[in-house]
Amino acid sequence: MEVDIMPDIRLFDKAEAISFSKKKVEYNENQQPQGVRFSMLDSKLNELFPPVLCRDYLCDVIYCEEKQKPIEVYGFNYQPISKDRLYRGLLVQFGTSKLIDAFNNFLPLFWIIENRNNIANTAIQRTERENVFLFHTSDFWFRTPPLMSLYSWLIRLGTYPIEFDDKSVVSWFKALSLYPNRTRELMTVSYYRNKLEYWLRNLPGTLLLRYSQEYNKVITEYERQGDPKLIHNALGILSWLDHKEQATKGDPEINDLLDEGKTESRMLKSFVMDNQFAAALHAGINIAVPVPEPEGDIVDEFEPEDNAGNF
Questions:
Q1: What is the distance between the alpha carbons of residues 269 and 254, in angstroms, rounded to a whole number?
Q2: Would you state the pLDDT for residue 240?
Q3: Which residue from 14, 115, 231, 262 puts its CA 20 to 30 A from 275's CA?
Q4: Mean pLDDT of 144-154
Q5: What are the C-alpha distances in Å from 234 to residues 57, 71, 113, 230?
Q6: Helix, strand, or coil here: 124?
Q7: Chain center to CA of 124
């Protein structure tokens, strides 16, 4: 399939015919600050489930395909179809044309993030449904649940109508941090902005490597407990930061991994959030806790490289 990449997603050629899901499902998901919904396809472009607001359901799919195990949680019921048959792409439904305009503004930086990490650029096509687009993605984003969570989060964050240097992640995060409507996710971005900038500079080293060394051990512990809600709530990018206290229960092997003297491990340790705060960030959990504000001025740990021009 040849995809014509253009700077404005409203002008892309239409994708091949997609068989949209006709299921009627009531998900137990909290409202999200931006009206962006996601769904997935099989290799024949059949939509696998009705669109979701909660990105953790996308993580459930990656988990189910990886483990070849079904999951039923918070109104979401998924049976694995085999990872080879899962299409490497997302259907993204933007609630309004204004969200599309904002994402068009973000798209060049989105590609720069992928280029920086040697990831093939996402290509986007219109579908027959208004404001619904097919994102053709690299296999990289489908490798682990946290990577899928980050990918879909970047898409949603890209729909905020902000002005920034379209070649600078630092500028983008600053603009998000200053956005007047202080949603919970934007306060999270503001609080952890320097760490997120670090992650986006080296996704294979910070997320892919750490997942293989630590995260699988945590999920195995949750599987042993037999509660699908624990698995669902732990698969997303934000929960991944909080797994030390919730899942290890003093497991020396996992704690040793977290306490290694490597730079990445030290930086990731600083990500560990308060358990209650992390849980409150997930759809399906409604815990009224305050979002911490940064202490003092935010200092950029990573300035753009002179020869890169993209961060």
A1: 12
A2: 63
A3: 262
A4: 93
A5: 11, 14, 25, 6
A6: strand
A7: 17
